[in-house]
Design brief:
The protein is mostly beta strands. The protein is about 10% helix and about 45% strand. The radius of gyration is 25 Å and the shape is globular. The protein starts with a helix and ends in a 10-residue tail after the last strand.
């Protein structure tokens, strides 16, 4: 090989080496995520760090008041650490196993977060893998244990341990092994409006686990989460599917406790309203409708009434019939202080309807109504998609 050939060969090798070094440097400098902003627009960004000010991407700072969520594709992950799932009232779940129960706090062992304590008021229950009961969203005045043989026990849970659950039923206090239990559902706790409106972050993990935390930060390829008890955990960002800001520029209506939850079946159907799940089979909204975060599954006739605290400028939602039946037909209405603000008749299956934005104009209450349509209540399963209160109205918003 002559001298010119050696020079060309060396130059190509040096160029390849420089390109590889640049690629490695860029990869280390930032991780690629999908960002959804406060106007529900999405774009891809490279994230260098996250702190109290917001998300840092190169020289740009994305303040938290313009961020709804960041997400990334993660490798499929098997259900972590056992067959039990701790389910929260907001719909999150964390796989693992119970450690102990003190009467108002459950200590839980998570493969990814380690031992962690949760207030009983924040918990819906503990489910065996595959539990498909339709009573998760029902109000309960006592604790309920569903047994694998189909029986149900009502009483007061007095003990939760690795070996099983102790429930007080009158004078009896049987202890039931986990092999005999399909679900433990806790009595409904009174709502706390101030708590439900506090800014937090929902951290979604690969494998469909999620937990709400007080704060998040990202630095030096480690994600740090601050839990409710002020303790912290460090996670590999590669197992984090998403970080959603709660009660920031928006608040999901599905996280609020309604003042009224009205359901009037036309025939003998029984489809009570379900929050963040479809009304028929309880599928999480984000699984059934990818691209949407939250929702409310209901059936005609239903009406939900919510109190407004004056801190919100507008309401935003989409909707669709949650079935493929051509018989489905409903009328959709949104009321402000019992006055109609939006109406859409003959809502039918087969499409997701466009975004509706309703300025609140200082209203004290908002009501979402799904009324019978042309075919009585035939197949009138329905879902409000991403129903959200907005702190600011999007540009050029007009009254519907």
């Amino acid at each position: 090989m002559g001298t010119p050939d050696l020079i060309r060969h060396f130059s190509r090798g040096l160029g390849a080496f420089c390109w590889l070094a640049l690629f490695i440097s860029q990869s280390r400098a930032g991780t690629t995520w999908n960002l959804t902003d406060a106007e529900f627009n999405s774009r891809t960004i490279s994230i260098d760090s996250i702190d109290a000010a917001g998300i840092h991407s190169g020289s740009d700072l994305l303040a938290w008041n313009d961020v709804l969520e960041i997400s990334q594709t993660t490798n499929p992950s098997p259900e972590a650490n056992g067959r039990l799932s701790l389910v929260f009232r907001g719909g999150d779940k964390l796989n693992g196993a119970p450690i102990s129960f003190t009467g108002d706090t459950l200590q839980w062992s998570s493969a990814r977060l380690g031992p962690i304590g949760f207030s009983l008021d924040s918990l819906l229950g503990i489910l065996q893998s595959g539990y498909g009961g339709g009573d998760l969203d029902q109000a309960r005045t006592d604790d309920v244990v569903h047994l694998a043989n189909g029986d149900t026990m009502h009483g007061i849970i007095s003990g939760i341990a690795p070996a099983g659950v102790t429930i007080q039923i009158g004078d009896a206090t049987p202890t039931l092994g986990w092999d005999s239990i399909s679900a433990v559902l806790f009595a409904t706790a009174p709502g706390n409006p101030a708590e439900s409106q506090r800014r937090m972050f929902r951290v979604r993990l690969a494998g469909d686990e999620a937990v709400d935390v007080a704060d998040v930060s990202l630095a030096a390829d480690q994600l740090t989460i601050t839990l409710e008890d002020k303790t912290t955990r460090r996670l590999d960002p590669g197992i984090v599917a998403g970080i959603e800001q709660l009660n920031g520029p928006i608040q999901w209506l599905s996280s609020r406790e309604p003042l009224e939850n009205i359901y009037k079946p036309f025939f003998s159907e029984n489809f009570p309203t379900r929050f963040d799940r479809t009304v028929a089979d309880g599928t999480p909204i984000h699984e059934k409708y990818p691209g949407f975060h939250h929702g409310i599954g209901c059936h005609s006739y239903s009406k939900l009434v919510y109190d407004l605290d004056g801190g919100w400028a507008g309401f935003r939602t989409q909707f669709r019939i949650d079935s493929d039946s051509p018989l489905a037909d409903v009328t959709v209405r949104i009321y402000l202080d019992d006055k109609p603000a939006f109406e859409r008749k003959n809502v039918k299956a087969g499409r997701i309807y466009p975004v509706v934005v309703v300025p609140l104009n200082g209203a004290k209450t908002i009501s979402l109504e799904v009324d019978y349509g042309e075919n009585y209540a035939m197949e009138d399963r329905f879902v409000w998609l991403d129903p959200a209160l907005l702190r600011t109205l999007p540009p050029a918003t007009t009254q519907p």
